[in-house]
From TrEMBL, chain A:
Record InterPro entries: Thiolase, Thiolase-like, Thiolase_C_2
Lineage: Bacteria, Pseudomonadati, Pseudomonadota, Betaproteobacteria, Burkholderiales
One Pfam family, short name: Thiolase_C_1
Location of the Thiolase C-terminal domain: 245-388
Organism: Rhodoferax sediminis
Name under which the protein is recorded: Thiolase family protein
A GO term for molecular function: acetyl-CoA C-acyltransferase activity
Superkingdom as given in the UniProt entry: Bacteria
Automatic annotation (TrEMBL), chain B:
Domain ChsH2 C-terminal OB-fold, chain residue ranges per copy: 56-121
Classification of source organism: Bacteria, Pseudomonadati, Pseudomonadota, Betaproteobacteria, Burkholderiales
Organism expressing this protein natively: Rhodoferax sediminis
Top-level taxon: Bacteria
Protein name from the UniProt record: Zn-ribbon domain-containing OB-fold protein
SUPFAM superfamilies linked to this entry: Nucleic acid-binding proteins
Domain ChsH2 rubredoxin-like zinc ribbon residue range list: 19-55
Cited InterPro entries: ChsH2_C, ChsH2_Znr, NA-bd_OB-fold, Thioester_dehydratase-like
Length: 392, 135
């Protein structure tokens, strides 16, 4: 296969925004997107008329046909470049890649990337869980009563079987990310949790309990991407894309080539190669964490630790702010917010903020290079990106 | 357990022979005539070599538990009354993996690597769903 053309230093993220997060019953999903978009645009100092491209993902609570067009209509934007990307949780990183490609090839100059839904209050909890059933194969998985937590639980069991990963190590991921969320003013979760509380939480699908599973939030997130050239004279400190790569191996768990080797290795390799960087150069990582097993696997596949060592890395505290590699400094999807594609998008928002600096007790000191990994489906679709606050 | 509330197999053009065979208590999988590769999820062409010359072959109906979970909170309300129950990925003797429940009195004691054999669960109107039990 041919190496993808480099997108290094071609584009920058110049504004990021989060909507109000948690239970926000007075707002629609589109409203949450609009609020996040407005905050991102304000931060960049650009005007609405500067936006000539818009990318969004999907919504379970407001399942419009042509969501990309619907969002533009709602925002009053008439772009030359627009699409709805449906790669599940990988969508935000994939959207950044599409945005970078469009800007690098001159199809657009300034693109709004936006996602989110009112998943906490726009659907009952049971309706939200039922809607997510659609991730299972309709004919060969759903008749067996599987669930998204159940599919990830099978991956966790296999990891524990092959590598000896411990139940307690999974729980440490949840405790770790909650501690970070408490340092974030807009995180959905506001109370500390202990290891015992994670281990004793309501069981969902062995070995995963309630606190091993991501939140269901009302939330929208957005970022503004523009050319590196245009970014220079804007009011915010630009954060440059250094490398980005995708890899897709399956959708349904029954078709996964392996339960211990996924596509993050390949997506990471492409991103590192483009950036000319390796795991040792990364100062902070925002890893998709829909379930506690997932960031453990991603740490391993992205080369931060050897296969089987991800659990111990979390348990030993290396993923904490101040540790060897702080992971999910905003609190991740386990404690900051999860609302459809917005979950992974907040990893990008947080990476940008860490690279700009000035986050107080949440700041990773001296952060210059950040890695973000998004995955969608059942570890099916992967996209890794590397950002830096300097062109390097 | 109210069997008729559980999902009934839905056959389509790709899978009708699979579900017809299940009604005869046979587990069948796809085999490519060009490259001999076996696969589980039925489709129009071989995912290995894209040949459209495929046949159905009888699987032995034995395999091992590749992984599993005990579901303690069902997402699908039809399964709420069944918790705790086991959902597993079975690696068939022939190689391909498929999803199924582990049924039987000792189902909750299942471990990765356990040998299992196919059984068929009545889902109403003569429709049978391939399932597994510990061998
Ligand atoms: Zn073939």
């Amino acid at each position: 296969m041919k190496t993808p053309a480099s997108l290094k230093n071609k584009i920058a993220i110049v504004g990021v925004g989060e909507s109000d997060i948690g239970k926000v019953p007075n707002m629609t999903g589109l409203g949450l997107n609009a609020q996040a978009a407005k905050r991102a645009l304000d931060e960049s100092g650009l005007k609405v008329s500067d936006i000539d491209g818009v990318l969004t993902a999907y919504s379970f609570t407001e399942p419009y046909f042509m969501l990309g067009s619907v969002l533009c209509e709602y925002l009053g934007v008439k772009p030359r470049f627009n699409a709805s990307v449906v790669s599940g949780g990988a969508s935000p990183a994939v959207m950044l890649k599409h945005a970078a490609e469009a800007i690098a090839s001159g199809q657009a100059e300034t693109i709004l990337v936006c996602a989110g839904e009112n998943r906490a209050t726009g659907l009952t909890r049971d309706a939200a869980l039922s809607a997510l059933l659609a991730v299972g194969h309709p004919y060969f998985e759903q008749p067996y009563g599987g669930s998204i937590p159940g599919y990830y639980a099978m991956i966790a069991q296999r990891h524990m079987h092959v590598y000896g990963t411990k139940r307690e190590q999974l729980a440490h991921v949840a405790v770790n990310t909650r501690a970070h969320a408490l340092r974030h003013p807009n995180a959905h979760m506001k109370r500390a949790i202990t290891l015992e509380q994670v281990l004793e939480a309501k069981p969902i699908a062995d070995p995963l309990g309630m606190l091993d599973c991501c939140l269901i939030s009302d939330a929208g997130g957005a970022f503004i991407v523009t050319s590196a050239e245009r970014a220079r004279d804007l009011k915010s400190k630009p954060v440059y894309l250094q490398g980005i790569g995708e890899y897709h191996t399956h959708e349904h768990l029954m078709c996964a080539p392996s339960l211990t080797e996924f596509g993050a290795t390949e997506s990471g390799k492409t991103a590192y190669q483009m950036a000319g960087l390796g795991p040792q150069d990364v100062d902070v990582a925002q890893l998709y964490d829909c379930f506690t097993i997932v960031p453990i696997i991603e740490l391993e596949e992205l080369g931060f630790v050897k296969p089987g060592e991800g659990g111990a890395f979390f348990a030993e505290g290396h993923a904490r702010i101040g540790g060897k590699l702080p992971v999910n400094t905003h609190g991740g999807m386990l404690s900051h917010a999860h609302a459809g594609a917005a979950g992974g998008l907040f990893g990008i928002v947080e990476a940008v903020r860490q690279l700009r600096g000035g986050l107080g007790e949440r700041q990773v000191q001296g952060a210059e290079v950040a890695l973000v990994h998004n995955e969608g489906g059942i570890l099916s679709s992967h996209c890794t990106l590397i950002l830096a606050n300097d062109k390097g | 357990m109210e069997q008729n509330t559980l999902p009934t197999p839905v056959a389509n053009a790709d899978s009708k022979p699979y579900w017809d065979a299940a009604r005869e208590r046979r587990l069948v999988i796809r085999k490519c005539k060009a490259c001999s590769q076996l696969h589980f999820m039925p489709r129009h062409l071989c995912p290995q070599c894209w040949s459209d010359q495929l046949e159905w072959v009888d699987a032995k109906g034995t395999g091992t538990v590749h992984s599993f979970t005990v579901v303690r909170r069902a997402s699908d309300p039809a399964f709420t009354a069944l918790v705790p129950y086991v959902v597993a990925l079975i690696e068939l003797e022939e190689g391909p993996r498929m999803m199924a429940n582990i049924l039987g009195a000792d189902a909750l004691e299942v471990k990765i690597g356990d040998r299992v054999k196919v059984t068929f669960e009545d889902r109403g109107d003569g429709a049978l769903l391939p399932q597994f039990q510990r061998a």
